Amino acid sequence: MTDTKKNVRNKIILISWGFLTIILLVSTGFQIVSNVKNGDQNIRENLLASATLTIAQDESVNCEDIENIQVSKMKAGAFPFNYSVIVDMKNGSQLTVEWKDENMSETEIVNQNR
Where are the bilayer-spanning segments (predicted)? Predict the structure, then answer.
């Protein structure tokens, strides 16, 4: 093989490796973003399920008076306490439900604006 053919072959191999590296980096980035979003969704779902149970067991809350329930992530706060469930009641009041401990084993109603 002549030197020019070797140089062309080496350039093609180098460009192929560079292209493959870029594709791997981009796909890894997408995978990381997807995992973060799915993890966030799982945390929200778990909090909502636990908060719903806490609200249903609280005798001071009439479940028929609930107008809206939403999970929100606060911009400040330590995980998992930066997530809360906000319950809007038909009379205009709100309940806030948050994790009771850092192990996310139980929720509690922390604020009742009645």
Answer: 12-33
